[in-house]
Specification:
The chain is of the alpha+beta class. The protein has 4 helices and 4 strands.
Length: 106
């Protein structure tokens, strides 16, 4: 019989940012998704609000539709997130619906 190692409790604590490349996770603290984008060889944590996912990309109410929506639109979302990060690398990136409205004007 194999001994089963009990996972550390910190693994299940709410974490504001997921820093795995190309991974996206629901983030209840902001009501949206956390994801990471590789910028200059470094994984940079970023977020997108539920409102942006729903208004701009037409995501549904459930977290699973948010994930699917992010994956389908990852290039556009990642590009805007990287642009925002490059403008001010010291400021956390949290994309909102307004950011995408500004993108259309640029």
């Amino acid at each position: 019989m194999r001994a089963v190692k009990k996972p550390s409790p910190w693994l299940f604590a709410p974490q504001p940012i997921m820093v795995l490349p190309r991974a996206a996770r629901r983030n209840t603290s902001i009501g949206g998704l956390s994801f990471a984008v590789e910028v200059d060889g470094e994984n940079v944590p970023m977020r997108i609000s539920e409102t942006a996912l729903r208004r701009v990309f037409g995501a549904g109410m459930s977290a699973s539709t948010w994930l699917a929506t992010y994956r389908f639109n990852a290039r556009r979302i990642d590009a805007l997130a990287v642009a925002q990060y490059r403008r001010d690398p010291l400021r956390p990136v949290c994309l909102t619906a307004e950011d995408f409205a500004c993108e259309a004007l640029a």
